[in-house]
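It would be a great kindness if you could assist me with a short task in structural biology. The matter concerns a single protein, recorded as an amino acid sequence and a row of backbone structure tokens. The record follows directly beneath this note:
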Amino acid sequence: MLARVAENLYWMGRQLERAENTARLVNATTQVLLDSPAGIELGWDELTRVMGFPDTVGVTEAEVVHLLLLDQDNPGSIVVSLRQARENARSLREVLPREVWEQLNNLHLRAPALMTAALDRSRRHAALREVVDARLMLAGLLNETMSHDAAFQFLRMGALLERADMTSRIVDISSAVACTAPGGLGMETTWISILKALSAFQMYRRHKNVRISPKPVVSFLFSDSRFPRAIRYCLENIESILAELPDPADPLRATRQAARLLSKVEHSMELDDGLPVLIDEVQQRLCEVHNAIHESYFSKPKPMAEAGMPTQLHAQA
């Protein structure tokens, strides 16, 4: 396979996954705001920090939502991510099933109107849910209509790496909530919203506990090897893909180093600021996995800002 084709597939996977998870993140944050009891304050500038914009202090909800959904200058906004994914798909029409191209093109055309509707808090959930559902339909089409050859594996590897990174960011929105309500009710509401944002609420209660508390929730989302949105699941599947590709030594080493960090979850939860520090370390390791994949398979690494990576990861590189 040509390196250019493999790279376009990898980035198409990342961009589609980014659009879906940004929709999940904004929905989760909005839900925390709507469901939290009196005494809970949400720092929208903390949300921009989570997404890799550390210098946006004092921003309003409207500014943050526009930045993440519609901003044409933000390479990670939903409309830009979908546009970039569509452009990559256009160059891959001989590789991708026709149904995938039609579904993606349709989503790309609908996205500006949907994201404009999502600026209104009362319409946000439905509009963002439509993006998530359309992306899940695309994933199903790819899985059921595309040969599971090397092309499919590069696309899937990009999606899995992006998902691992975005899961860590969605977990990190817990730091955007200042909990002053008695009895810790606000934090329980926050963790429920995080689980629901990742479609993980039912699976967590089935496999972990019916009670919601921070340590088992974070352990599930970071370390579970069976739940598809957990970071360990993503890394183990990336490792399986790499094992079938030529010259995987450097990407495999970086992937295994990232996976080893996940054993620190429970200890980190016992320390002040332990979780944010662990999340930063995980994101750094995921950045190293990305760099190793580029250097091994795409010849010259593409600058992350140009490719649409969140600016925080770009800074870490």
